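Incident log, entry 3
Record: Peripherin 2-like b (356 residues)
Problem: checksum mismatch between cached and fresh output.
Input:
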Amino acid sequence: MAVLKVTFTKTTRGKLALVLWVLNWISVLTGIILFSLGLFLKVEIQKRKELMSADVHSVPDMLIATGLVACVINFLGGKICYDCVDTTKFLRWKLLMLPYIVCTFLFTFCILVGALMCYSMRNELEESLFLGLRNAMLYYKDTGTPGRCYLKRTVDLLQIQFQCCGNAGFRDWFHVQWINNRWLDMTHSKVTDRLRSNVEGKYLMDGVPFSCCNTFSPRPCIQTQITNNSAHYNYDWKTEERNLWTRGCRQVLLDHYTNIMQSIGFIVLLIWLFELWVLTGVRYLQTAMENLLRQGDPDLESDGWLLENSIAQTARSNFKIIKNLGKCYQVDDDPNIDVPSTAQKEVPTCQIPVAR
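Fresh output:
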């Protein structure tokens, strides 16, 4: 028994074909939207690639590829649906309709995968940001080293633009040397004592770069000797609201990219539902036109359906087809292997006369 069978007249078949023609052209626009969203996300990630340790371009690349494929498939689908208005033109597409529907179904599955990837990228992005920001803070002082001289400017712009400080917080700067040795007075006893007190010979202090200063604080920025209450007037670093950005840059960037990807994922899900709706209409049109050809009269009514048989029967038949295809690749045994071999007859020996 057919699943979700619908009877179509000549008029309704023509209207269905024209509506699907319009929807396929709208789907071409959705493909352009997918491509644009993937390109936008790729550019956003590329802006701060120095702050990431690993390549996280799988989602934008997936969206870009899916968008390009969507434009091609839906353009072809629009041409097919437009020709289905005329029975004679449908004959040229009859053999391609089923493969086209299968390819479109796989394509809609790829769209769903792309949407789910937008929601599952957070953990991968968080690890990449953690390692990337840690390395950027370690190389913050290397303004004279080729390949690293830009990291100070990158980190400062990041902390100013996103109003954040450090990786997880401003205390992260206490554990790295962010001042280059060429800006340290090595003749000063406090500098040499601080370098000697560290096992690795690093100049560590309870200070942060200027970009960590909160511009909305009425008090002048306290960026050095942050934990020393006696170094500042009327100051308690444990209780007073410090005039530094309190949020870590990793969490801020993670929230920024998560909001973008969740918005993109929601749009992609809507596109997936729309493509699934169009695919359902194309399936009805295909089955209705094939049943019409069997009847031979283009003016008669014809039935269309999603599945010709029930879901269980369709699954069993497809399983049999796959099983038969697997048998085609098996090597046949020797047909004579089971035939018993006949016993060799004894060849009579002839006696050779001996001369006397």
